[in-house]
Structure formats: structure tokens, C-alpha cells
Automatic annotation (TrEMBL):
EC code(s) of this entry: 2.5.1.7
Single Gene Ontology BP annotation: cell division
Binding site for phosphoenolpyruvate: K22, N23
Reactions accelerated catalytically: phosphoenolpyruvate + UDP-N-acetyl-alpha-D-glucosamine = UDP-N-acetyl-3-O-(1-carboxyvinyl)-alpha-D-glucosamine + phosphate
GO molecular function: UDP-N-acetylglucosamine 1-carboxyvinyltransferase activity
Gene name of the record: murA
Location(s), subcellular: Cytoplasm
Family according to the record: Belongs to the EPSP synthase family. MurA subfamily.
Keyword Cytoplasm: yes
Keyword line: Cell cycle, Cell division, Cell shape, Cell wall biogenesis/degradation, Cytoplasm, Peptidoglycan synthesis, Pyruvate, Transferase
InterPro entries named in the record: Enolpyruvate_Tfrase_dom, Enolpyruvate_Tfrase_sf, MurA_subfamily, RNA3'P_cycl/enolpyr_Trfase_a/b, UDP_GlcNAc_COvinyl_MurA
A single cellular component GO annotation: cytoplasm
Protein name, as recorded: UDP-N-acetylglucosamine 1-carboxyvinyltransferase
């Protein structure tokens, strides 16, 4: 168990660099299944979820490891691919399921455990499966495994009822090696989808329209080894911005693509917090109180669900009442009871949290239920008076952030492993 003791009420000040995007690294590493030979992927954050996908690749017969000499670089040697992904890894991290498209495309057969439920909702994979079936796969569920078969995938028109990030990525990967043309309607537009498309294009795939609602893919016979550097993590950037705001600090956050965090920037500005953009640096300063603001999570370019818990922590200290509505996941308010233990005044009404701003939070023992809930509690602890003991049984914070505690401590926080 990871236990962190946070001594709060210390403003964060200074400069900090954002790491590579976890949610781009995971599908891009999965996509290397389709790229024979030696590839090199740079700017990969060193965190537990990436270690899990690397272990999935190894279990499939691909050699994958962090470089000893170049930081944040993963070297891949792909000379064979097996078709079965291991149960203990896929059930540990939902994104491991995203290997289904690549394995199916290269092997004609993929056997992947059905991911279990998780703290933030049931998170089914029906949209992935519907998309792969449209490309000609026969998909069955046997003994807890999803088994997909297709001697040759064929391009097709696919339309998603919801713009699922993972399903867009699964189908785009499978379509890259299918025969003929695929169009994905109502596709997810997240920057990580675009990054995956750019990786595949560099490896020889023919993809247009990534980042729009309609992605068109013309299948090619094979992909070729590639060197690629992934985008900065917009959710880490947003989390750092919220940390500056909630501690009444002053941060220069470097290595940011501001366009990717526009919704977060706008929302912070709406509360009256000063946010300035200078190229790839975001300056954020909060030396005063700030106003309440209503927010609704939506697929990109809307306000990200992965920023909702952190923003809720911040709004718990705003002047006035905010309504935070969650429209992407059905059960993403596990942080609320913990925030209440710290003195926040929050009520849950259906899929909305009614947050009445309070003057201060006070440190308390709290439990982490999922990754972004953990970030929200850490931010609350940084702002709270006294000590907050964060119990993170499943190491969620290490799963999704690279050196977050070290980064905060370098900016003036006082966080110790307990
Ligand atoms: C990705 C991100 C995650 C983020 C989420 C939404 C990665 C590795 N993870 O997750 O951090 O919170 O996007 O921005 O990139 N759904 C279905 N059926 C499906 C697929 C999804 O009903 O087949 C539902 C989910 O239960 C959820 C919603 O669609 O309610 C969004 O899920 P999706 O966009 O697929 O998220 P992920 O790709 O799993």
C-alpha cells in the first residue's frame, strides 16, 4: 500500500515540466504489436500503467524495455506475436484490452480477457466489439475471454453510438491493416487518438481525419519500424494547474500544448484565477479567493472527465455554489465522501455534485479509490490545514502520474511516504 502524509497549506511556487501522456503511451505501445522489427518510442512516462502494458507486450512475445541510456524511451523488438493476452494484466488495467485490435489484425485471432468492472463504472467493451465486428470479425465470449476471429479484416463503415476513446483506437488500429477503406463515424476526438494516428501514419498507415468526428483509414499490407515521440500529458498539466490554484500558488508549467487543455484553462479563468499562456508554458497564479463555477464533463473538446475530481477539490474552496455534472462515467464521484471528511460541503444529486464552497479544508485520513480521485485528494491535502494521510491501496497515483510527489515537493509541498 502507498501511504502519503501531506502537511498542507503551503503554496506551490516555481517551474515544473509536464511528462509524456499516459493515455497516448498506452495505445501507441499496444500499436507496436502491428509494427514488425525494432521501434523506439520516446517521451514515455515512467509509471505503473506503462509497466503493465510493457508486460502485456512481453507476454505476447515482443521484447520491450525502457532504455538504460535515454530517459523515457522504450525500445521495442517485435519479431513474433502470440494471440493470447494474460488474465492478470488485462484485469489489472482496462487499457490492456486495447491490444485486441492489433492482435486481431496481425494474427487473425485474438483471445483477450474481458476486463472487470472498476471503481468509476462498469465500463463495458461493447463499442470496441461492435466496431471490430463491422470489420468482419466474429466475436465470442468464452470462459471470461473475448475471442475475436477474422482471417482477413475488411474495411467498413462504422458508427459509434458514443465517441469512446478506446473503441476509436481499437478500430483505427485494426482498420490500418484491413483490406480496403474504413470510416469511423462519431469517433473520439481526443488528442491521444490523434497521437496514435500520427504514430501509425509514421509507420506507414493511411489515416485521415483523426481529431475530427470522421476518421478514414485505407488499409495497407504492412507497417514498418518507427521512431516516435509522444505528446505531453494534458491531464497532468491540468492537475498541476489545479494544484497551483488550490494552494494559492504561482507556477510556470512547461511543455504544455495549450490547445489540448483549453477547456480546463477557460474554466479556471471563469473562476477568476489568472492563467497566462506563453508558447508551451502555462503561467498560473492565484493569490486571492475565486468564484464558483458550474461544469459538465464531456468528450473532447469538452471539459475532461479525467479533470473532474481535481476541479471538484478546487471548487470545494470557491466562493459560492458550483454544480459539477459527470456525463462520461456513471460512477465517478468516489472522492466526494473523502472530501467531505476533510470539511468539504458537497451533496450528490444523481450525476451531479452540488459543491458549496467552504473557507478551508482540514487534514484527515482519506482513501484513494481510483487514479484521478487520488489526485483530487492529494490536491485537497496540499491546500488543507494540518496533516492529511492518503491511503492508496492499489498505488493508483503511481499508476497514472510520473514522479508526482517529487514534482510537488520540488515546488514547496511537504509530502512524505508514511
Ligand atoms: C479513456 C482514458 C480515460 C478517460 C476516458 C474518457 C485511456 C487509456 N483512458 O478511457 O483516462 O477517462 O477515455 O475520456 O485512454 N463505454 C461503453 N462501451 C465501450 C467503451 C466505452 O459503454 O465499449 C463507455 C464507458 O463505460 C464510459 C464511456 O463510454 O462510460 C467513455 O469510455 P471511453 O471513452 O471508452 O474511455 P476509455 O477509452 O476506457
Amino acid at each position: 500500500m502507498l501511504k502519503l502524509l501531506v502537511k498542507g497549506a503551503k503554496p506551490l511556487r516555481g517551474e515544473v515540466m509536464v511528462s509524456g501522456a499516459k493515455n497516448a503511451a498506452l495505445p501507441i505501445l499496444a500499436a507496436t504489436i502491428m509494427v514488425p522489427g525494432r521501434s523506439v518510442i520516446r517521451n514515455i512516462p515512467n509509471l505503473l500503467d506503462v509497466v503493465t502494458i510493457i508486460r502485456v507486450l512481453r507476454a505476447l512475445g515482443i521484447k520491450a524495455e525502457y532504455s538504460q541510456s535515454a530517459p523515457n524511451t522504450v525500445n521495442i523488438w517485435n519479431y513474433q506475436v502470440k494471440h493470447v493476452a494474460p488474465y492478470e494484466l488485462v484485469t489489472k488495467m482496462r487499457a490492456s484490452f486495447f491490444v485486441i485490435g492489433p492482435i486481431l489484425a496481425v494474427k487473425g485471432l485474438a483471445k483477450i480477457p474481458l476486463p472487470g468492472g472498476c471503481a468509476i463504472g462498469s465500463r463495458p467493451v461493447d463499442i470496441h466489439i461492435k466496431g471490430l465486428e463491422a470489420l468482419g470479425a466474429r466475436v465470442e465470449l468464452e470462459h471470461g475471454f473475448v475471442i475475436a476471429r477474422a482471417s482477413k479484416l475488411r474495411g467498413a463503415k462504422v458508427y459509434f453510438d458514443f465517441p469512446s476513446v478506446g473503441a476509436t483506437e481499437s478500430v483505427m488500429m485494426a482498420a490500418a491493416l484491413a483490406e480496403g477503406e474504413t470510416s469511423i463515424g462519431n469517433a473520439a476526438r481526443e488528442p491521444e487518438v490523434v497521437d496514435l494516428a500520427n504514430f501509425l501514419i509514421k509507420a506507414g498507415a493511411k489515416i485521415e481525419g483523426a481529431g475530427t468526428e470522421e476518421i478514414r483509414v485505407v488499409g495497407v499490407e504492412k507497417l514498418s519500424p518507427v521512431e516516435y515521440s509522444i505528446i505531453p500529458d494534458r491531464i497532468e498539466a491540468g492537475t498541476l494547474m489545479m494544484a497551483a490554484a488550490i494552494t494559492k500558488g504561482d507556477l510556470k508549467i512547461r511543455g504544455v500544448i495549450a490547445e489540448h487543455i483549453e477547456a480546463t484553462i477557460r474554466k479556471l479563468q471563469e473562476t477568476g484565477i489568472q492563467v497566462g499562456i506563453d508558447g508551451e508554458t502555462v503561467n498560473i497564479k492565484n493569490d486571492d479567493g475565486f468564484k464558483a463555477s458550474d461544469v459538465k464533463t464531456l468528450p473532447y473538446p469538452g471539459f475532461p472527465t479525467d479533470m473532474q475530481p481535481q476541479f471538484t477539490s478546487l471548487l470545494s474552496l470557491a466562493n459560492g455554489t458550483s454544480v459539477v455534472s459527470e456525463s462520461v462515467f456513471e460512477n465517478r464521484f468516489m472522492h466526494l465522501p473523502e472530501l467531505r471528511r476533510m470539511g468539504a460541503d458537497i451533496k450528490l444529486e444523481g450525476q451531479s455534485a452540488i459543491v458549496n464552497g467552504v473557507a478551508k479544508l482540514s487534514g484527515a485520513p482519506v482513501r484513494v479509490t481510483d487514479l484521478r480521485a487520488g489526485a483530487a485528494l492529494l490536491l485537497a491535502g496540499l491546500a488543507a490545514e494540518g496533516e492529511t494521510l492518503i491511503e492508496d491501496r492499489d498505488h493508483h497515483l503511481n499508476r497514472g502520474y510520473e514522479r508526482l510527489v517529487e514534482k510537488f515537493n520540488a515546488l514547496g509541498a511537504d509530502i512524505k511516504k508514511a
